[in-house]
From TrEMBL:
Entries under InterPro entries matching the protein: Aerial_hyphae_peptide-synth, Kinase-like_dom_sf, LANC-like, Prot_kinase_dom, RamC_C, RamC_N
Record-annotated Protein kinase domain positions: 224-486
Molecular-function GO terms, alphabetical: ATP binding; protein serine/threonine kinase activity
Keywords: ATP-binding, Kinase, Nucleotide-binding, Serine/threonine-protein kinase, Transferase
Source species taxonomy: Bacteria, Bacillati, Actinomycetota, Actinomycetes, Micromonosporales
CDD domains: LanC_SerThrkinase
Transmembrane segments: none
GO BP: peptide modification
Designated name of the protein: non-specific serine/threonine protein kinase
Organism: Dactylosporangium aurantiacum
Pfam family for this entry, one: RamC_N
Catalytic activity: L-threonyl-[protein] + ATP = O-phospho-L-threonyl-[protein] + ADP + H(+); L-seryl-[protein] + ATP = O-phospho-L-seryl-[protein] + ADP + H(+)
Enzyme Commission (EC) number: 2.7.11.1
Length: 879
C-alpha cells in the first residue's frame, strides 16, 4: 500500500507510480540476478517476484514478511533467496534501496511499512520451517516492526494471515482487498497497524503458542498517562500526556526504531536524539520547549517536552483567515494583516535567537510554530535542527518552505521565513516547487491585503538571499517545461482561447502506450483508476467531448479506455471509480452495446452493495443505469425502493453503510439526487419524501460559519465543497426545490449561495476546490438569493492562482499542490468542464447530473407493474 508521497518521486511534473523511478543504481544485487533453472521471475510495481515453474499459490494463508534495516537488506535478501529456492517457496522483494526507503519513510502507511520481502509458504510445515530455519539464518538482524503482523520471537520475521491473490470486496461501497471466509464470503483483508487474526482463520499450533506468549509478556509501567493522540506517522506518535508523578501536562514524542526514515535513511530514533540534543543546547530560550524527560518504553523511545498552550500557526491562520469568506470588509483585512505581520516578526526574532546559539531550525513551516494565547511564539519539532558547525543536510520538509537549492546553513531558515511571510497571506507557497517564478503571482494575490510598505520586497529579498547561498538549480528538463501562464485579466466573457489551450495540453499529455494510465492525474488513479470517471480516462474523455474540444485522438482513446475497463477487478462498479461511469461515457459517445455490457457486470453485484453514495455506491450506479437504460429500468427502481425503505425507517429494510463524508459524492446528498430523479420519472411521492429525508441527514452535519452560512463540519474544519461540503448539499437541494418550496431548502440554497463567493480555496479542482464552487455557483444563479453570477466571474478570474503553463499550454495543479493533474476530480478536465458549463449556461455541475427539468405531471414508466414497489421487488428477486 503506497502513500501519496510515493507517487511524487518518479516525476517532477506529474504524479506517477514509484516503480517508474530511475533507481537502477540502487537495485539490490538480487534484483540483478537471474532465477535458477526451474524458477520464473515477474516484476510488478516495486516488487520482484520469484516462483517455481508451474507453482500455484492458494488464494490466502499465512504469509511471512522480512523487515531489516537498510544496511543489512542485501545480506538478508540473499538468505531469503537461498531458503526459498531450497524449499520451493514463492517470494517477492522490493527491488532497490531507494524504493525500500520510500516504503519505510516517515509518512509511509503504518500498517504495511517496513516490508522488504514477503514469502508465501504453502502449508503448516513450510511455514514452520521458514520461521525456524530462515529465522535462524537472519538472527541478529533487526528492522522496523511491521505493525500489522505478529513478530516471530525477536528476529526480523513477521507473519499475518491474509490474501495471497488480489481479490476485492465492498466495505460499504468502497472496493477493498479481500479474504474468503469458510462459507465462501469475501470480507475485507484488514491491514490496520495492529495484529489481528480473523476469527475463522486456521491458526497452526506453533503460531497460537507465539500469540499466547506475546499476550503474556509483562508490560512495564511508565510514568505517563496518554490522554490524546495529536499526530501519528510511521515513525511514531505525538501525544498529550500527564506525568503521573506530579500531574504535569506534557507532550510525548514517540520514536520507533528503524522506522520513519528520512531521505538520508535516518530513523525516527536518530531524529528524536537530534531533537533532544538541540533542545538541550537551546535550553533557557523562551521560544523553544523545555526537555523534561527521555526514556524507553518497550522498544520505543520517548521525549517528554513542555506543553505549549495555544494553537499552531497553521490553525491560528485557519481560524482567522478572512479570504475564505465573500465580501470581506476593509477593516477585517486590516486587522488580520496587523496580526499576521506581528506573528511573523515574532517568528523571525525567535529564529535569530536560535541562530545566535549556533543552531539552524531546519524545518520552519506553520505547523511547527505555536502561538501562545498572549501572542508569543514557540518553535516546535526540532528533529531536523542542526549546528552551524555540522555537515548536515535536512532531507524532510514541507514543499512550500524548502528549496532544492538551499540545503545548508541559516539560508535554510531564511528561505522558509520568506515563504512564511507570504504564506500567512496566500497559503499556496508549495506552488513554487513547480515554478519558482510563481511567487510573483502569489505576491500579487497578497496585495489584496493592506501590506505594510516594503513587505513584498522583504519576501523577494529573503528568497533572493537564501537562493544566492545555495547550489545551482538541479538540471531537470521536465520541471523547466513548467512556467507561468499569462492569464488574461479581466478574463474575456468568452474564455474559448483559455479552454482550447487547456484542452490541447490535456490531449498532449496522453500516453496510450502505457497500460496503467492514459492521462496524468491524481495518485488515486493508481492502481485501478486509470480508466475511471474521477481520476482516469473516462473523466477526461467526457470533459473534452462535452466541451466541444477538438479531439482527433478520440477513437484511439476510447479503445484504450475499453481495454482498461476490462482489466478492472469485479467490485469496481461505481459511477466515479468503476464501470458504471465508464458505461455512461460510452453511452454518450454512441457506444451503446459496450455501455450495456459494462452495466451487466454492475447489475450482477447490486445485491452485494451496501453503500448508497454517488461516488462508488448504489446512487451513482442508479444514475448511470437511468441514463443508459432509460427511465423505468427495474434495477433503478429496485435501488430506489431500497433507499425509500431504509430512509423511512422500515425495520425490514436492508441496512446501508453510513456515508462517511456529508456531501454530494460520499454523503446522503447523492442518494437524494437519485430519488429526486426517480420522483420526476414515477410521480411516486415516497421518492420525494425519501429524497428530502436523505438530504436532511447530510444537513444535520452542517453548522453555520462566522457569516451565518451553512458548511459541513469536519472537526475544526468547515467544508464548502462539492464532494464533501455544503455546495454538494446545495446541488441536491436545487433539484428538490423545483418540486416544492420548503423553507429549509430555501435557507440552505441561499446560505450556500452566499458562501460560494469565498475568495480563497486551497485547491483548484472540481471535487474539492474552486472549480466545484464555480460549477455550483453557476447552477444556483437564478435560484439562490441574491444571485451568484458575480461569484462565477470571480472564480474564473481566480483560477489563475493555481494555473501554470506546461510546454506553453494551460495546466493546473492537482490536490497534491506540487504536481500537475489533468483528471476530472482534481485537475484540468474538471476545470475545463466547470468553466465551460458556467460560461455556456448548461447547468451541469458534475458529469451526468444535468439540472432537472421543470416540474411536470410525470407519467410512471412502470405502469404495467402493480406499483413501483412491486416492480422493484421483482427486479431484486431476479437480480
Amino acid at each position: 500500500m503506497q502513500t501519496p508521497g510515493a507517487y511524487l518521486i518518479a516525476d517532477r511534473v506529474f504524479a506517477d507510480t514509484p516503480d517508474r523511478v530511475d533507481d537502477r543504481a540502487s537495485w539490490f544485487p538480487l534484483a540483478r540476478e537471474t532465477p535458477p533453472d526451474g524458477w520464473c521471475e515477474a516484476r510488478r510495481s516495486v516488487w520482484v517476484l520469484w516462483h517455481p515453474d508451474g507453482h500455484r499459490l492458494p488464494r490466502q494463508g499465512w504469509k511471512v514478511h522480512v523487515s531489516v534495516d537498510l544496511p543489512d537488506a542485501a545480506e538478508a535478501l540473499a538468505k531469503v533467496r537461498d531458503h526459498c529456492v531450497r524449499h520451493g517457496i514463492a517470494f517477492k522483494f522490493v527491488r532497490s534501496r531507494q524504493l525500500a526507503l520510500v516504503h519505510n519513510e516517515k509518512y509511509a502507511h503504518r500498517g504495511s511499512s517496513g516490508k522488504l520481502a514477503a514469502l508465501y509458504p504453502v502449508g503448516d510445515d513450510a511455514l514452520r520451517s521458514t520461521l525456524t530455519e530462515l529465522g535462524a539464518a537472519l538472527a541478529g538482524l533487526r528492522g522496523p516492526y511491521v505493525l500489522s503482523d505478529l513478530r516471530w520471537h525477536d528476529g526480523p520475521l513477521f507473519l499475518r494471515f491474509g490474501g495471497f491473490a488480489e481479490r476485492y470486496c465492498h466495505d460499504g461501497d468502497e472496493p477493498v482487498t479481500a479474504v474468503e471466509t469458510p462459507d465462501g464470503l469475501l470480507v475485507p483483508d484488514e491491514r490496520d497497524p495492529v495484529f489481528a487474526v480473523p476469527d475463522w482463520a486456521p491458526v497452526p499450533d506453533f503460531v497460537a503458542e507465539r500469540i499466547a506468549a506475546v499476550a503474556e509478556e509483562p508490560v512495564t509501567e511508565q510514568p505517563y498517562q496518554i490522554d490524546e493522540a495529536l499526530h501519528h506517522s510511521n515513525g511514531g506518535g505525538v501525544y498529550l500526556a500527564t506525568d503521573l508523578r506530579d500531574g504535569t501536562r506534557v507532550v510525548l514524542r514517540e520514536a520507533r526504531p528503524y522506522a520513519g526514515l528520512n531521505g538520508a535513511g535516518a530513523d525516527a530514533v536518530t531524529r528524536l536524539h537530534r531533537e533532544r540534543d538541540m533542545l538541550r543546547r537551546l535550553d533557557g530560550l523562551p521560544c523553544v520547549p523545555r526537555v523534561l524527560d527521555h526514556f524507553t518504553w518497550w522498544e520505543h523511545e520517548y521525549l517528554a517536552e513542555e506543553l505549549i498552550e495555544g494553537d499552531t500557526l497553521q490553525d491560528a491562520v485557519g481560524a482567522r483567515y478572512p479570504l475564505i469568506y465573500p465580501d470581506v470588509p476593509a477593516e477585517e483585512l486590516a486587522g488580520y494583516t496587523a496580526w499576521a505581520v506581528d506573528v511573523v516578526d515574532r517568528v523571525e526574532r525567535a529564529l535569530r535567537q536560535v541562530h545566535d546559539q549556533g543552531v539552524v531550525f531546519g524545518d520552519l513551516h506553520p505547523a511547527n510554530v505555536m502561538v501562545r494565547p498572549g501572542g508569543d511564539v514557540v518553535l516546535i519539532d526540532f528533529e531536523q535542527a542542526y549546528g552551524l558547525d555540522e555537515d548536515f543536510t535536512p532531507t524532510l520538509g514541507d514543499a512550500g518552505f524548502t528549496s532544492p537549492r538551499v540545503r545548508r546553513g541559516v539560508g535554510v531558515d531564511d528561505y522558509a521565513l520568506a515563504c512564511l511571510r507570504l504564506s500567512v497571506f496566500v497559503p499556496l507557497t508549495s506552488l513554487t516547487a513547480l515554478c519558482p517564478a510563481k511567487v510573483e503571482e502569489l505576491l500579487a494575490v497578497a496585495a489584496r491585503f493592506p501590506l505594510p510598505p516594503g513587505y513584498a520586497g522583504r519576501i523577494r529579498d529573503g528568497l533572493r538571499r537564501a537562493l544566492a547561498t545555495g547550489d545551482p538549480e538541479p538540471s531537470t528538463v521536465d520541471i523547466a517545461a513548467v512556467t507561468r501562464f499569462a492569464w488574461p485579466s479581466p478574463v474575456p466573457a468568452d474564455p474559448a482561447p483559455l479552454l482550447a489551450s487547456l484542452a490541447e495540453g490535456i490531449r498532449a499529455s496522453a500516453t496510450p502506450d502505457r497500460e496503467d494510465r492514459l492521462f496524468p492525474g491524481d495518485p488515486a488513479q493508481f492502481p485501478h483508476g486509470g480508466a475511471t470517471l474521477a481520476h482516469g480516462a473516462a473523466g477526461v474523455i467526457h470533459a473534452l467531448v462535452a466541451t466541444g474540444s477538438q479531439y482527433p485522438e478520440l477513437d484511439e482513446h476510447v479503445d484504450w479506455m475499453l481495454r482498461a475497463a476490462g482489466e478492472l477487478p469485479a467490485p469496481f462498479v461505481g459511477l466515479y471509480d468503476g464501470r458504471a461511469g465508464i458505461a455512461a461515457v460510452l453511452h454518450d459517445l454512441g457506444r451503446r452495446d459496450e455501455a450495456l455490457e459494462l452495466l451487466r457486470s454492475c447489475r450482477a453485484v447490486l445485491g452485494d452493495l451496501h453503500g448508497a453514495s454517488l461516488h462508488s455506491g448504489l446512487a451513482g450506479i442508479g444514475l448511470a443505469l437511468d441514463r443508459v437504460a432509460g427511465p423505468g429500468d427495474p434495477d433503478v427502481l429496485a435501488i430506489g425502493e431500497r433507499l425509500v425503505r431504509a430512509l423511512s425507517g422500515d425495520p425490514q429494510a436492508v441496512a446501508f453503510a453510513e456515508p462517511r463524508h456529508p456531501g454530494l459524492l460520499r454523503g446522503w446528498s447523492g442518494p437524494a439526487l437519485l430519488l429526486t430523479r426517480l420522483y420526476e420519472h414515477t410521480g411516486d411521492p415516497r421518492h420525494l419524501r425519501a429524497a428530502r429525508a436523505a438530504l436532511r441527514l447530510d444537513l444535520a452535519s452542517c453548522t453555520d460559519d462566522q457569516r451565518g452560512n451553512p458548511q459541513v463540519a469536519d472537526g475544526s474544519r468547515l467544508l464548502l465543497y462539492i464532494d464533501e461540503g455544503s455546495a454538494g448539499l446545495a446541488v441536491a437541494a436545487h433539484a428538490l426545490l423545483r418540486h416544492g418550496e420548503e423553507p429549509w431548502l430555501r435557507s440552505l440554497i441561499d446560505g450556500v449561495g452566499r458562501a460560494l463567493g469565498a475568495e480563497f480555496t486551497m485547491l483548484p479542482g472540481l471535487f474539492h476546490g474552486r472549480a466545484g464552487l464555480l460549477a455550483a455557483a453557476a447552477l444556483l444563479d437564478g435560484t439562490a438569493r441574491p444571485g451568484t453570477a458575480r461569484h462565477v466571474a470571480g472564480h474564473i478570474e481566480r483560477l489563475s492562482w493555481h494555473a501554470f503553463a506546461h510546454h506553453g499550454r494551460l495546466a493546473f495543479v492537482g490536490d497534491t499542490l506540487t504536481r500537475l493533474s489533468h483528471d476530472l476530480a482534481t485537475g484540468g478536465a474538471g476545470i475545463l468542464l466547470a468553466v465551460h458549463a458556467a460560461t455556456h449556461g448548461t447547468g451541469v455541475t458534475l458529469p451526468f447530473l444535468p439540472a432537472p427539468a421543470p416540474p411536470q405531471a410525470p407519467v410512471p414508466p412502470v405502469a404495467r407493474a402493480a406499483s413501483p414497489a412491486a416492480a422493484a421487488e421483482a427486479a431484486l428477486a431476479t437480480g
